[in-house]
Amino acid sequence: xxxxxxxxxxxxxxxxxxxxxxxxxxxxxxxxxxxxxxxxxxxxxxxxxxxxxxxxxxxxxxxxxxxxxxxxxxxxxxxxxxxxxxxxxxxxxxxxxxxxxxxxxxxxxxxxxxxxxxxxxxxxxxxxxxxxxxxxxxxxxxxxxxxxxxxxxxxxxxxxxxxxx
Length: 165
Hints:
By secondary structure, the protein is α/β, with parallel strands linked by helices. Helix content is 45%, strand content 17%. The protein has helices at 12-15, 20-34, 52-63, 95-104, 109-124, 132-148; strands at residues 3-9, 43-50, 71-75, 87-94. The relative contact order is 0.17.
């Protein structure tokens, strides 16, 4: 794996999920392989598996939005610089929000977590969904990453628009 994973499982709900770290690592490996962005070998991706209260604090501080969200990403640098840096960035995933979304959308929790990690990683390496064109490109890559992991297209199942979060 070109990237290395540093993971903190903070929320109790996440601690009860079997093989969570292995799942996150598999998604990161596939996303790094398919994203097309050169990264320094061994560059670190930090993942925080937290609860809604913690992600709400982070969201308020860094985005000015006083509400929980499913996933947040904090890139270390623009994608052009990532090949020279030992850090890719940070991802935070909120337990209660992701569990609720998975239930509402009829998905398994591991499949939805995989989508959140893929989505977060793509933000770290410069992808976004501010415009329809960007969203289509990013969603297509998410679908490919997940598909290669044996996970169904998350957008075919009526998932909420990621641009609304």
